[in-house]
């Protein structure tokens, strides 16, 4: 035993063994330094990733996607004679010979995205919404409905005009709403005044793309809303323009168009409401739905529902119209609801426009009733009947009898 201990002592103090131990210690120190260096690199990489994330434009932006899958259909029991006559929301079909016709479309399907973000102390909101309704009756091409940014009470982009009246709207099956309601969307710069909890005022410069001068339309809208009562007052002015070719040179004729609207909605019980709206418009067919018309060429220029050229070719003969719509809504149960609406467009037949455009509308009326069924929270099925009548300045009268239906899924 003593020999073994003495031998191990001598071996441990030998130069060979000491050198081996020193090598192992040096190797371990090298490994430790390598691990430290690797840890530093990992820390730097994590810090870089965090910094990169902090400047990512979407990192602190709230994004909400939404949409409506929608199928519309209609059956005409009498032939519809012209588009402004209780405008059809389905694709055009052969109107000759007159009689029953039907069509279906999914072009009112809608996709949208709401975005919000806080930059310093400013809340920034934005919206992009689109559907496939490009053209008078929808042809399946992608169309921008809304695209704007909203901050510090300023809105820049395209959205509903101040002449719209969704606040007093009666729910319809027809995608284009009842006559007397307006849904025009224009590129605009708008400022919002929150005057008090129940009072709101919006003013805007809106771009109107056809039959107008280079100046934007000026619009304003006041909304009063408190508990069961909503009131709306609105108005616009817009310089209209016709460009004629006279003796080989172009000639611009300008004239101001204007209009105003008033509406009320009163909810007199939890399941019943009544709502109505009135417009008076002179020289315009852009801001109020169903006022657009095509009337051929008069005195060298295409007439519309807004104006035509006078006989001396130096002024615009403006069309004038009063529109009325009255609606009633009733919630039958959690799953069933119904709506009724009566609409009237009454054009001034004493104007030079009426005398020079005999085939345009003198009076258009519509009576409609619908019922909606909601089998589950996000699905609606609707059925709606329209009976309409259109009378021209020349005395000709046309009728429509139409059944509309719709199914929607909202997400």
Structure characterization notes:
The protein has 411 residues and is mostly beta strands. The protein folds into two domains: 2-49; 71-410, Porin, CATH 2.40.160. Helices cover 14% and strands 53% of the residues. It has three helices and 21 strands. It has helices at residues 2-12, 15-54, 352-356, and strands at 62-76, 101-105, 110-119, 122-131, 143-151, 154-160, 185-196, 199-206, 217-226, 229-246, 249-269, 272-282, 294-298, 301-304, 307-309, 316-318, 320-331, 336-347, 361-373, 379-392, 397-410. The strands form three sheets. The chain has a 16-stranded antiparallel barrel with strand order 1-3-4-5-6-7-8-9-10-11-12-17-18-19-20-21. The protein has a two-stranded antiparallel ribbon with strand order 13-14. Strands 15-16 form a two-stranded antiparallel ribbon. The longest helix has 40 residues, at 15-54. The radius of gyration is 34 Å and the shape is globular. The protein starts with a helix and ends with a strand.
Which helices and strands occur, and which strands form pairs?
Blueprint lengths: L1 H11 L2 H40 L7 E15 L24 E5 L4 E10 L2 E10 L11 E9 L2 E7 L24 E12 L2 E8 L10 E10 L2 E18 L2 E21 L2 E11 L11 E5 L2 E4 L2 E3 L6 E3 L1 E12 L4 E12 L4 H5 L4 E13 L5 E14 L4 E14 L1
Antiparallel strand pairs: 1-2, 1-3, 1-21, 3-4, 4-5, 5-6, 6-7, 7-8, 8-9, 9-10, 10-11, 11-12, 12-17, 13-14, 15-16, 17-18, 18-19, 19-20, 20-21
């Amino acid at each position: 035993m003593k020999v073994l201990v003495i031998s191990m002592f001598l071996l441990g103090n030998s130069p060979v063994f000491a050198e081996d131990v020193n090598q192992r210690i040096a190797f371990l120190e090298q490994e430790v330094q390598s691990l430290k260096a690797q840890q530093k690199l990992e820390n730097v990489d994590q810090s870089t990733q965090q910094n990169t994330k902090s400047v990512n434009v979407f990192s602190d932006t709230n994004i909400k996607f939404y949409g409506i899958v929608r199928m519309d259909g209609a059956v005409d029991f009498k032939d519809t004679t012209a588009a402004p006559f209780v405008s059809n929301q389905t694709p055009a079909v052969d109107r000759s010979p007159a009689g029953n016709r039907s069509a279906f479309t999914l072009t009112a399907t809608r996709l949208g995205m709401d975005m919000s973000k806080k930059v310093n102390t400013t809340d920034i909101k934005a919206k992009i919404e689109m559907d496939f309704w490009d053209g008078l009756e929808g042809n399946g091409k992608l169309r921008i409905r809304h695209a704007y940014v909203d901050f510090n009470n300023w809105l820049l982009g395209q959205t509903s005009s101040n002449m719209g009246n969704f606040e007093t709207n009666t729910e319809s099956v027809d995608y284009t709403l009842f006559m007397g309601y307006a849904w025009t969307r224009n590129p605009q710069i708008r400022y919002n005044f929150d005057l008090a909890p129940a009072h709101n005022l919006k003013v805007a410069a809106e771009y109107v793309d056809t039959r107008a001068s280079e100046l934007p339309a000026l619009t304003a809208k006041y909304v009063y809303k408190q508990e069961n009562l909503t009131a709306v007052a609105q108005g616009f002015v817009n310089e209209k323009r016709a460009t004629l070719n006279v003796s080989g040179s172009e000639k611009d004729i300008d004239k101001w168009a204007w209009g105003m609207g008033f509406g009320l909605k009163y909810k007199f019980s939890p399941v019943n409401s009544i709502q109505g709206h009135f417009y008076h418009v002179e020289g315009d067919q852009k801001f109020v739905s169903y006022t657009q018309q095509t009337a051929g060429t008069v005195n060298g220029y295409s007439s519309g529902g807004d104006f035509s050229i006078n006989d001396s070719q130096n002024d615009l003969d403006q069309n004038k119209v009063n529109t009325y719509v009255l609606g009633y809504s009733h919630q039958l149960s959690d799953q069933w609801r119904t709506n009724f609406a009566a609409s009237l467009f009454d054009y001034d037949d004493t104007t030079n426009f009426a005398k020079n455009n005999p085939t345009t509308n003198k009076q258009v009326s519509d009576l409609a009733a619908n019922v909606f069924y909601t089998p589950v929270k996000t699905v609606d099925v609707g059925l709606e009947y329209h009976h309409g009548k259109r009378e021209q300045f020349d005395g000709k009268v046309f009728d429509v009898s139409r059944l509309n239906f719709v199914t929607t899924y909202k997400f």
